[in-house]
Design brief:
The complex is a heterodimer of chains A (294) and B (184). By secondary structure, chain A is α+β, with helices and mostly antiparallel strands. Chain A has one domain: Immunoglobulin-like, CATH 2.60.40. In chain A, the strands form 2 sheets. In chain A, strands 4, 5, 6, 7, 10, 11, 12 and 13 form an 8-stranded mixed β-sheet that branches. The two termini of chain A are 26 Å apart. With 184 residues, chain B is mainly α. Among the domains of chain B are: 87 residues, no CATH class; 28 residues, no CATH class. In chain B, 59% of the residues lie in helices and 0% in strands. The N and C termini of chain B lie far apart (81 Å). The chains are: A alpha+beta (294), B mainly alpha (184). At the A-B interface, α2, α3 and α6 of A face α9 of B.
Chain lengths: 294, 184
């Protein structure tokens, strides 16, 4: 009996639901409506294009400007009637045990979110370290300014042989090169949770390289909870990569993250996104979010 | 006696000629350096419209740059050389090379590149008639501008390298694919 209790306790203590998140410090982020500003725009017309090219991330100049940026962008966007808010404040917390990383995202429960997407990189994709989600947001993908009639999802520049200011189009590198890029971790991992009726999270994960691949329904788990007027979702995944399209989550490297949410009734680019932020599993490495060791 | 009179007359004529010539050249240079003169050719009117939408025309400190401030150097040798070269503008005006807005757009990049090249060659001397790194209060600038200016000071970069298209529509847009490369 004692052994059974010990095993039960051990199982509970390793699961996201057993974590006392109130004891873990969080980082406030403001997600905002990004409009149709692409990777190509960021490197050409953006006033800080030179800074981005030199590896200086968005926060260096834009921290605290998210709310105003969202308002200004949405005001001039033809989607302005489809969205009831141009920004959303969230708190991000993280914790890890010997097996798993848990990322907790919470926000005001009145702000109904139906879809959470996290992008992760381990520093392999240079563009993601400075620009987060903008690294794979291109002029010619669906719903963007130079979109064609067909569907084109997110992609990373390295998957194209010819990148112009209008995007990389269909100039895909060879399948061998794509395989090599995957082996070199030159992709962004994504975790996604859709909330079904009753706020139960249905998760999927995958990666973005030449397109968005959502291929794995088992590796990433997510739990939702409602507490003190806050809605929270906790993503969990094994620290060690189990699939070829996963990144190792360790204490040696910073983890570069981007967060996007869709609110009720919104889809596609009518989302709210974060500037890129960093997460560390090492208390000696400063990051926007420092994960607590459990 | 007769010879000295001749020498005197010739000297006087040369001096008077030089004086009249100097005054004439000075007046011509001055009158052809006004904004009114520049936009008296219809080809330039669109550029004035663009200028009026920028901080070089209207700004918090009330300092205004006109065409000549950016396009005509201050020292006289360079100024006269610039004016001499500008005769080609009259030639193309007569030929009607950029007579219409469409023709102007066709040649905008080529004209802009000529100006950028000239500014690079002179280390953006016309910019530096008003702006200097030593007079900049970097902490008053945006974070991005602070960082870029610090880099520029260290690398000895010239203004026009980054500040293209700040008084007129940027002819370099859409940018080339080379501008999509990361440098880190």
């Amino acid at each position: 009996m004692r052994l059974l209790l010990l095993i039960l306790f051990s199982l509970l203590s390793n699961s996201a639901s057993a974590i006392d998140w109130s004891k873990i410090e969080g980082t406030q982020l403001t997600l905002f409506f990004p409009g149709q500003y692409s990777w190509e725009w960021l490197l050409t017309s953006h006033q800080g294009a030179n800074s981005i090219k030199k590896g200086r991330g968005c926060f260096l100049c834009h921290k605290g400007q998210e709310k105003k940026k969202g308002e200004a962008i949405l005001k001039h966007d033809h989607h302005h009637n489809a969205m009831n808010s141009s920004s959303l404040d969230v708190i991000v917390k993280a914790a890890y045990d010997k097996d798993d990383l848990h990322i907790n995202i919470s926000h005001d429960a009145h702000q109904s979110v139906t879809n959470y997407t996290l992008m992760l990189d381990d520093g392999s994709v240079r563009a993601s370290t400075v620009a987060g989600c903008w690294a794979y947001c291109h002029e010619d993908q669906s719903e963007m300014k130079a979109a064609g009639t067909g569907e084109r999802s997110h992609y990373l520049s390295q998957s194209r042989s010819e990148l112009t200011t209008q995007g990389g189009g269909d100039s895909l590198v060879s399948s061998q090169t794509l395989e090599k890029l995957v082996s070199e971790k030159q992709f962004n991992e994504i975790w996604q949770a859709r909330l079904s009726t009753g706020n139960k999270a249905v998760t999927t994960s995958g990666y973005i390289l030449e397109k968005r691949h959502l291929v794995d329904n088992n590796s990433v788990k997510a739990q939702t909870r409602h507490h003190h007027g806050q809605n929270a979702i906790v993503f969990s995944r094994k620290l060690k990569s189990a699939r070829k399209f996963q990144k190792d989550l360790n204490s040696e490297n910073l983890i570069y993250l981007g967060l996007a949410v869709h609110r009720k009734g919104n889809s596609g680019r009518t989302h709210l996104v974060s500037f890129p932020f960093t997460l560390s599993l090492n208390k000696n490495i400063s990051a926007d979010v420092n994960a607590k060791a459990l | 006696m007769f010879l000295s009179k001749i020498i005197f007359s010739v000297t006087a004529l040369v001096l008077i000629g030089a004086l009249v010539g100097g005054i004439t050249i000075g007046t011509v240079v001055q009158n052809t350096s006004t904004q009114e003169y520049c936009v008296s050719c219809h080809e330039m009117k669109a550029l004035e419209v663009e200028l009026k939408q920028t901080a070089h025309y209207k700004n918090a400190s009330g300092v205004r740059a006109t065409c000549a401030d950016c396009h005509v150097p201050e020292d006289w040798t360079s100024k006269l050389w610039a004016k001499t070269k500008a005769v080609k503008d009259l030639y193309y005006h007569v030929l009607g090379k950029i007579d219409t807005a469409e023709e102007f757009e066709q040649h905008r990049l080529e004209m802009a590149q000529t100006v950028w090249k000239q500014m690079e060659k002179t280390d953006s001397e016309t910019c530096r008639n008003c702006h200097s790194f030593s007079a900049m209060k970097l902490e008053k600038q945006t974070k991005a501008a602070q960082l870029e200016h610090k880099d520029a000071i260290l690398a000895g970069q010239t203004c026009i390298k980054c500040h293209k298209g700040i008084a007129h529509k940027d002819a370099s847009k859409p940018a080339s694919k080379d501008s999509l490369k990361l440098e880190f």
